[in-house]
Amino acid sequence: MIEIKNLNKSYGTFEALRGISLSVDKGEIYVLLGSNGAGKTTLIKILTGLITPTSGTALVDGYFARDNKNIRRKFGYMPEHPDLYERLTGEEFLNMMGSLKGVKENILTQRVRKLSKELEIADYLNMEMRSYSKGMKQKILFINAIINDPPNLILDEPTSGLDPRFTQDIKSRIKNLASYKKNILMSTHITSVAEDLADRVGIIEKGKLVQEGTPQELLEKTGTNSLEDVFIEVVNHARKNS
Amino acid sequence: MLIVGFWLTLSTIEFLAQIDEPFINPSKANVLFGIFFFFTAKATTESLEGTLRDKALKHYFTSPIDSSSLMYSRLLKVLFYNLLLFGLAMSIVLFVINIGNINIPIDNSFIIPLYLLMLLAPLAGFNLSVLSHVKKRVFKIINAFLSVQIVTFTWFVLHNDSVSSIQNHYIVLMLIGSTITLIVVTKTYYRESWAITSQGIEDSNHHSYKIKLPNFISSNIKLIAESEFTRRWRNKQIPASMGIVATMGIGLVFIYSLLGPYPEIGLEMDRYFYPSLIAMTLFISTVIHVLIPSLTLISRDGRRLWCLRTLPTYMQKILMGKAVSILLTAPIITLAIALPVPIILEYPLSFVLFSTISSWIFIFLMGGVGLWAAVKFPNFDESTRGAPDIITMYSTMMIIILLSVFFLALPIYLFMLDRVLGVLSIVFAADMAALFMISMIKRASYLLKKMELSF
Fold this sequence. Notes:
The complex is a heterodimer. Chain A has helices at 40-47, 90-100, 105-118, 134-146, 164-179, 191-197, 215-222, 227-241; strands at residues 2-11, 14-24, 29-34, 55-60, 75-78, 152-156, 183-188, 200-205, 208-213. By secondary structure, chain A is of the alpha/beta class. Chain A has a domain at 10-83 and 150-241: Rossmann fold. The radius of gyration of chain A is 18 Å and the shape is globular. Chain B has helices at residues 2-17, 28-53, 57-61, 67-99, 108-131, 137-159, 165-185, 190-203, 219-234, 237-259, 273-295, 305-309, 315-327, 331-338, 340-344, 349-376, 390-417, 419-450. In chain B, helix 2 packs antiparallel against helix 4 (67-99). The chains are: A alpha/beta, B mainly alpha.
């Protein structure tokens, strides 16, 4: 389970996150929706232990990821930018990460082979990743996030850089993972992705969670027809009040 | 610390200047050529990285900027930084000479050609690096030939006694002019050189081989070390620094072949000449092969650090893996520097052992301090490829010099009194240095765990 309570993060006088609280329940897909620079990535980085919060807690299965190495085995993380060890081949990278996450060698080889084939990247696995396109790197990142079959997934803009066919494919995979009771927290600024996947949506604006609920609840609350309209309405309202 | 360091260096030069051996006390021409050669090599590397390999270039080449303007801007950058560094170094040298009352004659006959050579060096380096990447082999050969000609011509001009100093200046000015002309004439090839360099990178990235390390270390450390080693190997960092260390080793043997077993340098220094030379070479080669790579271990990861930080592994094991990747090739320092000359000179076994173990003290100290400084003062600027800033580099060197004195002074003293006692004490010092490295890695792992990766 993913649980965030009263989370604050400041850089000097700039408040990146302001008192955010949310939780992701078992088998739920929670989508963080927000404009560019709203604080989605900061929140995710705190959750994965890459950044320390100024105050509040961000816990995965009851622990802060930075302080407990075993907890880091219990979530898969896909960062927003595909920054990879470009001098390694895709296969070398996935084998290293999988082994360090504790996946046994024979299982790891099978998984890398299966997933890379399904995501149509198997032919490129022996090439250094610096020759990969952004979409190919995204696929490697996705495989890396699920390589050890973790119970929690934290995905930062997972469909960015992918063509429509693979966007669809990744979305159905995420849905499928949730059906296996994985807890999924993902961020996006694409409302159609949220519309297709979200069990619950949290809208972040200027570091604050300004609206939260199921897509249906949000549509009813705002009296609009689509998540895009909800998003625009909520963000405009929040900006007026700030 | 900067001034103290310069003072120490200049005092050493002043001391060496009293020795009547041409190899140790080189002529003005040799010093000038040495500085010119260093700055040319530096400019060549900088030009290759900044003018051809810089990833940002693709944005400029696809924008409505004339490629020759782009080339000139990059040339000016190389020129400016080299002159800035030289100006700064010269100011400190002159300041220290005056304040410290050091007797090194620096007059106009040295300073004027030096300034001119400092203008020529970046131009020659830039030219060599850009034009050696054009497609046509004929152009490559011509350019390489021209670049070699500039360097050899400079050597002859500086060493020719029949040419007066004023004539010298005119000839160097003429060389500057012709190098600039060469750059201007061949500016159309810049875009091609850039394209070939990027294409060359794309061509060589298919790998079916895997670098596997022996199974004597824990699996997590081994995995990190393999990944680190593979990346550094493919970046040609490991082969390059091994090549430099091997060349230094060959240089030592060459000096021996020139000066023989008992060089007469006076000042009762004869018997300490080779031990001092080996110690100095050991220090420099360890800086190149261990300290500099250690200092860049974290910074080079940069935005990719999330991979390691989100792993269910202790940060200490991650850093141990990185340290192992460096230590694996460190024996070349012992093999190339610490062993050959003592063996050729038929020094007693005790000395060979002492020299070998000393090399490992340097390796452990530099590995430990380097890794700690890498985490404490990371440089995440992608354009510098993780190289530490000059202050960090300098401070680290100073700390290592102090630590080396601390770890080696007593064993050296004891070795001079009694060989067995000396060897035993150096073994003990090596153990302490290894422990020091482990404790520095522990400290660094704590810092790595706390590092904010907000980029």
